[in-house]
Amino acid sequence: MKLKFFTGKVFNETEWEDFVFESLKNQLNRITEDSLIQISEAKRTIKEARLWIVGGQIIDGGYYKFNDNAPFEENVPEGGLIFANEMIQLFNLEEAFVMDICLTDEGWKIVEINCINSSGFYPNTNVKSIIKALNIYFSN
Fold first, then answer.
1. Which of 58, 83, 120, 132 has its CA 20 to 30 A from that of 20?
2. 46-77 as b/e: b if 16+ CB within 10 A
3. pLDDT at position 31, please?
4. What is the pTM of this model?
5. Per-residue pLDDT tens for 32-68?
6. Residue range 125-140: average pLDDT?
7. Residue 80: which residues within 8 A CB-CB, separation 6 or more?
8. What is the mean pLDDT of residues 130-136?
């Protein structure tokens, strides 16, 4: 079973060791010594967006974070959407899911992919279009 055991963040070595120690000690925690996690070097992110995907199509997308004085953009640019569509072809994990992407110094990257029913909406999310797409897709 694949679960999101904890919210990802940047840890230094001491913080990670403390987190692991405390997590394994806590009997209410779902993390065990056999839990698999993904790790990566920390990357500088310029801006981050959440994309709502239904039936392999991006239904809506909007930014939730801008860093380093990145200029505001209302919509994810074509380059981000092209990247996301390429990733959907590789990682089309479910009929409906959420993909968070970010722009880095090395181009667009995936931040994470999540279950659609446990992902939060941001103020710029077009909730009506997402619900309409879900209704149409799953009614067929």
1. 120
2. bbbbbbbbbeeebbbbbbbeeeeeeeeeeebe
3. 81
4. 0.78
5. 888 888 788 888 889 999 999 999 999 999 999 998 7
6. 94
7. 49, 61, 101, 103, 108
8. 96
What is d(CA 118, CA 71) in angstroms, rounded to the nearest whole number? 29
- Which is it for the CA torsion 101, 49, 57, 53, positive or negative? positive
| Bridge partners for 114 per DSSP | 98
Q: 25-29 long-range contacts, Cβ below 8 Å, gap at least 24?
A: 29/5
Structure-block tokens of residue 131: 């619900």
Amino acid at the residue 5: F
Element (H, E) at 79: helix 78-90
- Rounded to 5 degrees, what angle do the CA atoms 41, 50, 43 make? 15
Measured on CA atoms in the order 41, 45, 49, 55, is the torsion positive or negative? negative
User: Within the chain, what is the greatest distance between any pair of CA atoms?
Assistant: 51
Q: Which residues contact 51 (CB under 8 A, 6 or more apart)?
A: 58, 60, 61, 76, 84, 98, 99, 100, 101
